[in-house]
């Protein structure tokens, strides 16, 4: 009996028919993690003892009291705080940090009865597109262990692709859920800004960050978003809007749906394979009754510069809290208070984090504030307006998630601008704040490609409906990577 | 817009409380110069009459009733503190 290719509904069915128990399933998840980690390196801290205890208790709960995700294993990105379980955001500066409370999403996972099995590797403080910026390890792409899983939620995407866990949480500031989901051939959703509480998410760029689910299927993704969504008094930026049942939105009917296809997402800098796979996907949706029309999001090319100015500025402010006084890494070498701060931060942060802190500090410094920070905020208005205008006529906007499939480890790590270009198709979405999903839509030389479906504010339902229709019509999500062969059952 | 020079990198690093060596400053200056050059693209756009966006959703102040509520337990709060004594955070002796 293998659990790795099962959906939530199938796993529940197996529990109901006594084919397995929650305790057994949890044990299997850990066995599989143990067998695959030497290859994939997706996990940081594991929660084995507590998860095992919790699972045994949960088997005693009557079926009538269980929801659709009850007892199922989940991994959590390491920038989401988990009480009593080491949380580092993959940074040396938080080595050994043991949170004293849970993020709201972690509390919600508990309410849904999910079993947190461990924390997932990422680019340090969510800054990066390859997971190579982790202080602790480099996660590998299960489809080709010499390539990157994407980032920054690379561990979260790789763990699902490898079948280590069926569910994970990631976070997305400029593409950090969707790009690794595309690279690893899994489903990743960045919800509308404000849909999910950020309380307990270690802040990178507060006006852009959003937590979201990574899964193998669209339906499971919708179920997990159901569990984590909702207004939270502890996050003043969480939206007080009704949360629909996202899974109920999967009606299979997209007749008459209007799809805008931005020409800029099929232009310069986007590879042929990615373009072709997206065009083929659009044909599939047309055959199911959707209407596709070319549109323009004219300010797309300005998104990357806008994003790096705004995100770095917010990061430089957010990361000023790491000073070595109350928690985290502390330098051994300090003759003065200033040296104490400077050495602690220099030894504790990696290069990409330092680069962005410096860029942000520069953009916010007097004399440059108007030219950089304020300018970027104004361009953000124009980018947002592109989407507002398009959504007056169209229900969703569709294109490739990334310009290329996954690249080799070490290939572009020394070239920040080329690395940043990975996110040209995902960044505009964060700047506008709208929701978007990546679903598997093809392969290029054996590496997965993703289709990005972008929706209106708080209309994740339509996004999921379209994604589900595409998934039902294709079998890309059923393909499995090489790491599955010979792995523990 | 101006490009970031090595001197500016050193100054900015100081403002951000990051110790960097001369060699690192040079390396970061090369990279940050390329990055800030790429940001110049925004100058193409006339944004004279455009309002800045700080947040995509309408934000309102969130207020609560002004009454005292218990905070976190002190023992718990000190859990991640490297050194503490008598309920207070200990820092290295520093004379300035």
UniProtKB/TrEMBL annotation, chain A:
InterPro entries documented for this protein: Amidase, Amidase_CS, Amidase_dom, AS_sf, GatA
Gene3D superfamilies given in the database record: Amidase signature (AS) domain (3.90.1300.10)
Pfam families recorded: Amidase (PF01425)
Keyword field: ATP-binding, Ligase, Nucleotide-binding, Protein biosynthesis
EC number, as in UniProt: 6.3.5.7
Catalyses which reaction(s): L-glutamyl-tRNA(Gln) + L-glutamine + ATP + H2O = L-glutaminyl-tRNA(Gln) + L-glutamate + ADP + phosphate + H(+)
Domain Amidase, residue spans: 24-463
Highest taxon of the lineage: Bacteria
Keyword Acetylation: no
PANTHER family in UniProt: GLUTAMYL-TRNA(GLN) AMIDOTRANSFERASE SUBUNIT A, TRANSAMIDASE
HAMAP family: GatA (MF_00120)
Quaternary state and interactors: Heterotrimer of A, B and C subunits.
Function: Allows the formation of correctly charged Gln-tRNA(Gln) through the transamidation of misacylated Glu-tRNA(Gln) in organisms which lack glutaminyl-tRNA synthetase. The reaction takes place in the presence of glutamine and ATP through an activated gamma-phospho-Glu-tRNA(Gln).
NCBIfam families: gatA (TIGR00132)
Family of the protein in this entry: Belongs to the amidase family. GatA subfamily.
Protein name per its UniProtKB record: Glutamyl-tRNA(Gln) amidotransferase subunit A
Protein species of origin: Planococcus wigleyi
Gene name linked to the record: gatA
Automatic annotation (TrEMBL), chain B:
The reaction(s) this protein catalyses: L-aspartyl-tRNA(Asn) + L-glutamine + ATP + H2O = L-asparaginyl-tRNA(Asn) + L-glutamate + ADP + phosphate + 2 H(+); L-glutamyl-tRNA(Gln) + L-glutamine + ATP + H2O = L-glutaminyl-tRNA(Gln) + L-glutamate + ADP + phosphate + H(+)
Assigned EC number: 6.3.5.-
Keyword Secreted belongs to the record: no
UniProt superkingdom: Bacteria
Entry GO MF terms: ligase activity
Parts of the chain that traverse the membrane: none
Key words, A-Z: ATP-binding, Ligase, Nucleotide-binding, Protein biosynthesis
Gene3D superfamilies, per database record: Glu-tRNAGln amidotransferase C subunit, N-terminal domain (1.10.20.60)
InterPro entries tied to this protein: Asp/Glu-ADT_sf_sub_c, GatC
Primary role: Allows the formation of correctly charged Asn-tRNA(Asn) or Gln-tRNA(Gln) through the transamidation of misacylated Asp-tRNA(Asn) or Glu-tRNA(Gln) in organisms which lack either or both of asparaginyl-tRNA or glutaminyl-tRNA synthetases. The reaction takes place in the presence of glutamine and ATP through an activated phospho-Asp-tRNA(Asn) or phospho-Glu-tRNA(Gln).
Similarity remark: Belongs to the GatC family.
Record note on quaternary structure: Heterotrimer of A, B and C subunits.
HAMAP family hit by this protein: GatC
Protein name per Swiss-Prot or TrEMBL: Aspartyl/glutamyl-tRNA(Asn/Gln) amidotransferase subunit C
Organism: Planococcus wigleyi
């Amino acid at each position: 009996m293998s659990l790795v290719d099962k959906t939530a509904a199938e796993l529940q069915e197996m529990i109901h028919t006594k084919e397995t128990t929650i305790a057994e399933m949890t044990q299997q998840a850990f066995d599989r993690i143990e067998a695959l980690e030497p290859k994939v390196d997706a996990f940081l801290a594991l929660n084995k003892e507590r998860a095992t205890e919790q699972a045994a208790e949960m088997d005693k709960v009557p079926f009538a009291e269980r929801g659709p995700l009850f007892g199922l294993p989940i991994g959590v990105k390491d920038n989401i705080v988990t009480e009593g379980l080491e949380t580092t955001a993959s940074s040396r500066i938080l080595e050994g940090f043991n949170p004293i409370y849970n993020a709201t999403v972690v509390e919600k996972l508990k309410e849904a009865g999910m079993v947190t099995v461990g924390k997932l590797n990422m680019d340090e403080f969510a800054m990066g597109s390859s997971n190579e910026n982790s202080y602790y390890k480099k996660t590998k792409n299960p489809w080709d262990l010499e390539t990157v899983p994407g980032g920054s939620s690379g561990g979260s995407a790789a763990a699902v692709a490898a079948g280590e866990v069926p569910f994970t949480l990631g976070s997305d500031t400029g593409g950090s859920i969707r790009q690794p989901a595309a690279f690893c051939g899994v489903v990743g959703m960045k919800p509308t800004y404000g849909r999910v509480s950020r309380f307990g998410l270690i802040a990178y760029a507060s006006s852009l960050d959003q937590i979201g689910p990574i899964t193998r299927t669209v339906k499971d993704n919708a179920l997990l978003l159901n569990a984590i969504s909702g207004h939270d008094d502890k996050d003043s930026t969480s939206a007080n809007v009704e949360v629909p049942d996202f899974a109920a939105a999967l009606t299979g009917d997209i007749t008459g749906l209007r799809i805008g296809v931005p020409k800029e997402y099929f232009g310069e800098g986007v590879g042929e394979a990615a373009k072709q796979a997206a065009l083929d996907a659009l044909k599939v949706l047309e055959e199911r009754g959707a209407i596709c029309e070319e549109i323009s999001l004219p300010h797309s090319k300005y998104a990357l510069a806008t994003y790096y100015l705004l995100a770095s500025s917010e990061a430089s402010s957010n990361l000023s809290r790491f000073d070595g006084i109350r928690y985290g890494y502390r330098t051994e070498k300090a003759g003065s208070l200033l040296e104490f701060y400077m050495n602690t931060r220099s030894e504790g942060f990696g290069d990409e984090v330092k680069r962005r802190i410096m860029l942000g500090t520069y953009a916010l410094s007097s004399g440059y504030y108007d030219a950089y920070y304020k300018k970027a905020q104004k361009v953000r208005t124009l980018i947002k307006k592109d989407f507002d205008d398009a959504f007056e006529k169209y229900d969703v906007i569709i294109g490739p998630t990334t310009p290329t499939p996954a690249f080799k480890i070490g290939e572009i790590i020394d070239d920040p601008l080329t690395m940043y270009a990975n996110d040209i198709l995902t960044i505009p979405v964060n700047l506008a704040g709208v929701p978007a999903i990546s679903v598997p839509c093809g392969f290029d030389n054996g590496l997965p490609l993703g289709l990005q479906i972008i929706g209106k504010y708080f209309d994740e339902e339509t996004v999921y409906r379209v994604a589900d229709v595409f998934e039902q019509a294709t079998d890309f999500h059923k393909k499995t990577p090489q790491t599955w062969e010979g792995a523990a059952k | 817009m101006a490009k970031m020079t090595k001197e500016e990198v050193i100054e900015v690093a100081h403002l951000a409380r990051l110790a960097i060596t001369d060699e690192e400053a040079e390396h970061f200056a090369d990279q940050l110069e390329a990055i800030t050059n790429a940001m110049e693209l925004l100058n193409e756009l006339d944004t004279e009459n455009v309002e800045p966006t700080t947040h995509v959703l309408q934000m309102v102040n969130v207020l609560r009733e002004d009454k005292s509520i218990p905070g976190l337990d002190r023992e718990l709060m000190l859990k991640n503190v490297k050194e503490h004594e008598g309920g207070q955070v200990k820092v290295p002796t520093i004379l300035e």
